[in-house]
Design a protein that fits this description.
The protein is of the alpha+beta class. It has two domains: about 120 residues, PAS domain (Beta-Lactamase), CATH 3.30.450.20; about 130 residues, PAS domain (Beta-Lactamase, 2-Layer Sandwich), CATH 3.30.450.20. The chain contains eight helices and twelve strands. Strands 1, 2, 3, 4, 5, 6 and 7 form a seven-stranded antiparallel sheet that branches. The chain has a five-stranded antiparallel sheet with strand order 9-8-12-11-10. Helix 3 packs antiparallel against helix 8. It is elongated. The C terminus is likely disordered.
Length: about 260
């Protein structure tokens, strides 16, 4: 297993760590917890035993372990790693063993991976949104995963904190709540950052329950444009292209964590 964990992270340079955590007394009858974890430190792989740092079966400490055992495979809320200065997302999925008496599979632990979101940052920067347009990605709770304002990401601000600064914030709050629940939203609004009339698009990312949003300044979009419909069609094509590459990026992370281990 240790060799498999090591080879998996070696083959996935965007991963910061990968490991397996066993349920109590499952690895060996005389050992309560066992959780080997390979991580990158200053470009080199390092093997850690997480059970020597904390009890990962305790609520509040081992959510990455507890949630998948209860609900199945899950992407956890992304967080900014202070030590790595990088935004990380964590994917966890349970593994099972066969109960010899009942002949049923029972959860025996989880396999998990910490995934660097630098790839998303590069992908978003390649999305052409005009001179003043910008995009951002929100977590399921509305926390900024990517934004042109890096301080929002580092401080883990939510879109609702930013909306509260807008003129008539309720006009944006309700659509944002719907978007985070998986709805596609297109609307015009007064940009709280610039005061300019803008359009905002919300698109769900089903594989992670995240949301992609793109903001466009109306004056720029309409300038030298024969048809607003034509311009919006080009924008939608860019977003579709973005999702195609985003899907590949996330799908590789998902399949790598499940299939490789």
């Amino acid at each position: 297993m240790l060799e498999r964990l090591k080879s998996t992270i070696e083959q996935n340079p965007n991963w910061f760590g990968v490991g397996a955590a066993y349920a109590s007394y499952t690895y060996k009858s005389q050992i309560r917890l066992y959780a080997p974890y390979y991580t990158r430190k200053q470009g080199k792989l390092q093997l850690l035993q997480l059970e020597s740092f904390y009890d990962y079966t305790q609520p509040g400490k081992g959510d990455w372990y507890i949630h998948p055992l209860a609900s199945g495979s899950v992407w956890l809320e992304p967080h900014f790693g202070a030590a790595t200065n990088t935004l990380l997302a964590e994917f966890s999925t349970p593994f099972y063993r066969l109960n010899p008496k009942t002949k049923k599979n029972i959860p025996s632990g989880v396999v998990f991976a910490n995934y660097s979101l630098d790839g998303l940052k590069n992908l978003m920067n390649s999305l052409k949104l005009g001179k003043t347009g910008y995009g951002f990605i929100l977590s399921k709770k509305g926390t900024f995963i990517y934004s042109h304002r890096e301080d929002w990401v580092k401080e883990q601000k939510t879109i609702f904190q930013i909306i509260s600064q807008a003129y008539k914030p309720e006009k944006l709050r309700v659509p944002a709540q719907k978007a985070l629940k998986g709805s596609k939203i297109e609307m015009d609004f007064q940009n709280p950052l610039t005061g300019q009339s803008s359009w905002i698009f919300f698109e769900p990312i089903p594989t992670t329950s995240w949301t992609l949003s793109a903001v466009f300044i109306q004056d720029e979009i309409l300038l030298n444009t024969k048809s607003l419909h034509h311009k919006l069609l080009l924008i939608n094509l860019q977003i579709i292209s973005f999702f195609f590459f985003l899907f590949i990026l996330i799908f590789r992370a998902y399949k790598g964590s499940v299939r490789s281990l």
